[in-house]
Amino acid sequence: MDDRLHVLIAEDETLIRLDLRQLLEAEGVAVCAEARDGQEAVELARETQPDAAILDMKMPNLDGIEAARRIYAERPIPIVMLTAYADPLLVERAIGAGVFAYLVKPFRSTDVVPTLLAAVARHGELLVSRRERGRGGTPIEVEVRSSTGTVYPLSLRRGPDGALKISLGSGDTS
To answer: What is the per-residue burial (b if ≥16 Cβ within 10 Å, else e) of 44-68?
Structure first.
């Protein structure tokens, strides 16, 4: 089994894409797929199930921000945005789409892998935090109203095994 980090690269400029591949592989990172545009990146992320992705912001067919949003919605992975644009509004949009790190072109080769590893670490911390928050704790109480006006109280609680338990009523199942 290959323990290396598997990364998807999406960059429409061939030379930059090849440079990224060479740089990552020289540092022991496996490049599992290369995309030339955002739509291809989304499709390759589905097919190859990468551990992380590096996406260029400005690509044909689908920009990097929308590609990041789609990839992260289907399978949350750490994403690094690579771009020549450091506009604060674009950075904000990228973060809102699920991007964990931002690398501005021209980048130094010594910045790529540390940025990628930092994104992977932060993403891992987020997942641990979400799991811990989901275990135990107070149930979520909601009321669902039918089209006839009948109200059904529901309780959602995470079980010790992490499974979501849904019950009618107050949810006091202890």
So the answer is: bbeeeebbbbbbbbbbeebbbbbbb
